[in-house]
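Cyclin-A3-2: structure tokens wanted.
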Amino acid sequence: MSHKQINAQGQRQDAHTAELMEIQHTLLVMQDNIKSTKIVVHQLSDLFLANIFNQKRETHKPKKSLTAPVTPTLESSSDIDARSDDPQMCGAYVSDIYEYLREIEVNPKQRPLHDYIEKVQKDVTASMRGVLVDWLVEIAEEYKLGSETLYLTVSYVDRFLSLKTVTMETLQLVGLSAMVIGSKYERYTRPPRVEEFGYTKQEVMEMEADILLALRFELGRPTINTFLRRFTRVAQEDFNVPHLELEPLCCYLSELSILDYENVKFLPSLVAASAVFLARFIVRPKQDPWNKMLEEYTKYKAADLQECVGIILDLYLSRRGRGLEAVRNKYKQHKFQCVATMHVSPELPVTF
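Answer:
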């Protein structure tokens, strides 16, 4: 090979190496740009979402309500939510979530008639409904179904009875089928074995179909349990008692409330707030059971709760629902701190 050929080959290799280095440099620059773009996009996304929430809070005007809601203080709400270590509480946007839930719970399509026994039913009475719900509590306890399943079941029963007339003999089948639907909706609970209650699978399936068609498959809705967790946490803020005592007491009062037909007319959030009010009164009878923070979070004043609190107190003292012992026996257990045995004054506080 001549000297000129060697030089020419060396120049080509140098040019090729330089070209490779230039391509490598270009790829590195592109990679840095991509990273920078990702960072900017994420920053813009965060700013965009923040602006959406800020605009929503600024432009939102509270609707008129018969319960005279109290305007919340956003600063204190943010503080209490920010202090939560529970990621399921969704502190960053919990206010928007509960605002949405409050809108859903007043939807008339998902609300039972407050007087369906008088207007729709012919054989079924309020006392029969109480016996049915008491039996459903027993079934839920036997099969270890959650409180949410129980509340959904009672909701399905009330909504179905608001639309369809049933006989006395069919009422228990309606309740059992509603519980099967609630168990399936919750998914993590096993439905009761229907054969143990004298019904065939075919009978229950047919009743399930009737209920689902009547409810138009609209099964998801806020229940008392939906609001109770948050309200209980707020109630604990100025209360120097163990959370493990106040929470089961609120749950007990809430489950007592579903026994009485008169409570069908109340919104789930109002019943949850009433349970918290009465629980605080039972634990600390000399302390005001309601305060500004609870008004802010529940959107109810003490006067809005008076009727519902009175009904639940009568249930607690067995002045109502006498003979319905499933809920009472359930909360006499040590795992619920025996809250059903706590003493309470027979008279409501003068807060009202």
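The chain has 14 helices and no strands. The chain has a mean pLDDT of 81.

Cheers.
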